[in-house]
Amino acid sequence: MRMHHFSLATAIVLAGNIACAQEQVLNIYSARHYPSDEALYSGFTKATGIKINRVDADDAGIVSRLKAEGAASPADVILLVDAARLWRGEAEGLFQPVKSKVLDDAIPAQLRGKPAADGTSAWYGFSTRARIVVYDKIKVKKEDVDTYEELGDPKNKGKLCIRSGSHPYNLSLFGAVLEHLGEPKTEAWLKGMVDNMARTPKGGDTDQIKAVASGECGIAVTNSYYLARLMRSPKAEDQAVVERVGVVFPNQGTWGTHVNIAGGAVARHAKNQANAVKFLEYLASPQAQEHFANGNNEWPAAKGVKLSNPALQAMGGGSFKSETIPISVVGMNSVKVQQMLDRVGFR
Ligand code: FE
After folding, report:
1. In the prediction, which pLDDT does 140 show?
2. Residue 206 and residue 333 in one domain
């Protein structure tokens, strides 16, 4: 038996695991913050007999933990919820490249880490989420907010609500815009959004939607699944919010709506490498892909998965035009975007 060196915290987490070394295990570090995912993990264990030990933390917490643990890290699979974070994890050498026919067949090329010469990718997207615009149907006209560019137009002064600019969801959106518009126009656009803000950025995406419904903001930016969650909520107050707001998938007439991913990778120092690949392949399976759509209101990354989610169907069932630039480019641009945000005072 091989001896591993674990930190004290890790030893406690994995104590059960060491006690029965014969058992097949998989250690996952996950930044997915969605309670409905329990079914995803239990589905894998049921199908394979492989027991999952999971550490939940946010993206930044996982990355710093992996760095601190180094080669002694027990992590086999890393799940992160944003392209810019996945790109950074790869850039910092935290993942190992994977070659899998199952993944190659299921996951579109633009939703993976940049392929190496040998055809491997360092990470894979398993679900997608659109970054959409919601607006106050009473005060704002749809045609004034149906492109991202218009969010920075002076005609929308005092109306915009958006979470912190350096949140990964925004860094990725802005990184995509940078790819489409180039540096000078993107920086001017970011400055325009700062000038248009109804308030200093605070809260998460759901808070922005609710602030539109309450009349504090005229326009907000959100990931699609937060709106879908409200649409499917049985609470009267959530239904009232949905009633009040209009929804736009921006840039349908040009380069398409920005789509981000949640994805996964095999950890650089994985001890259960084969199980880790098996888990990523499981995430690409129809069963797991349906879970992303119906459990967390995301769109499946794999091709040809059927949607039965009424909220996703109400939003067009995924038939909107989405941008086609490789998501790995978006991640790479996030460094430049952060510098622009600092210059224009986008908090
Ligand atoms: Fe989220």
Report:
1. 98
2. yes
Residue 165: domain span: 130-257+328-344
- Coil, strand or helix: which one is 259? strand
Is 322's pLDDT higher than 70? yes
**Judgement on whether residues 69 and 218 belong to the same structural domain of the protein:** no
Q: How far is CA 142 from CA 86, 208, 252, in A?
A: 34, 17, 13
Indicate the pTM of the whole model.
0.88
Number of domains the chain contains: 2
The first and second tokens of residue 5, run together, are: 């060196």
Asked whether residue 9 is domain-assigned, the answer is no
Average pLDDT over residues 114-130: 94
How many angstroms separate the alpha carbon of residue 33 from the centre of ligand 1?
A: 7
* C-alpha of residue 293 to centroid of ligand 1, in Å: 14
| 211 and 332 assigned to the same domain | yes
223 Cα: distance to centroid of ligand 1 (angstroms): 7
From CA 84, how far away is CA 74, in angstroms rounded?
Answer: 24
pLDDT higher at 14 or 308: 308
Query: Pick the residue with more confidence: 184 or 287?
Result: 184
Signed CA dihedral, 158, 164, 169, 171: sign only: positive
Task: Please state the separation of Cα 163 from the chain's center in Å.
Answer: 15
CA of 92 to the centre of ligand 1 (A): 23
11 alpha carbon – ligand 1 mean position (Å):
30
Q: Are residues 154 and 252 in the same domain?
A: yes
pLDDT digits (tens, 9 = 90+) for 40-53: 999 999 999 999 99
Gap from CA of 248 to ligand 1 centroid (Å): 19
Distance between CA atoms of residues 209 and 230, nearest Å: 9
CB 123 within 8 A of CB 103: no
Instruction: State whether 156 and 207 are in the same domain.
Output: yes
